[in-house]
Amino acid sequence: MPYRLKPLLLLTLLFSQQALSCECLWQGSFSKAYKKADLIVSGSIIASKGNSADFYIDRTHLDRGIGFTEFNSTIRVWGDNGQLCRPKIKDFPVGTQWVLSLNKITGDIPSDGFNPDTPNISYGRVNDYYLSKCGANWLKLEEGLVTGNLVKGRRWEWENKTMNPVLLALIDAYIKEIIPEEALVEAAKPLTETKKLMEETKRFLREQ
């Protein structure tokens, strides 16, 4: 009879493997984590291969000019290769839209960062970008509305289904320090029945 691991032991082993491959401090919800980014952009995934994706930039919200100011309309973003504190690229399907808080790959690539036998699985190339999962560095974007772990969310969670969708313009204003974090907190609060009714009434009146 083959030996079988008990479910609890199996989960422990899986968690241990993940912990060994990625150890970092939680940098917070997007409203905190973005402060460590080199580039913040919104746009869409237009191609994906291995652990990288090509991202079309619709709008640049912040560019710290690390190395040089990004002028390309399409950039390459690298995710996890099994050993890095990054999300899996498969979680960002082609055609989906996102707000991404990115870091530029600079300096020397690690000696084990590129294997010519598996060129599509890599640490990334100099002047490309990577997405860290040490904080909520991405938000889902649909029809100008943003959802995700935007502000005061739980640790190690990247979705917040109770959050009220927030206008992308509001995110942009926050990143540019035009509005305070409190404005994001208020905008992201779950809709009450009264607030829902008011929003529906406003929408009805606009459509008349």
From TrEMBL:
Q: Output this protein's name.
A: Delta-aminolevulinic acid dehydratase
Does the keyword section mention Signal? yes
Q: Which UniProt keywords apply?
A: Signal
Give the source's domain of life in one word: Bacteria
* Signal peptide boundaries: 1-21
* Source species of the chain: Oceanicoccus sagamiensis
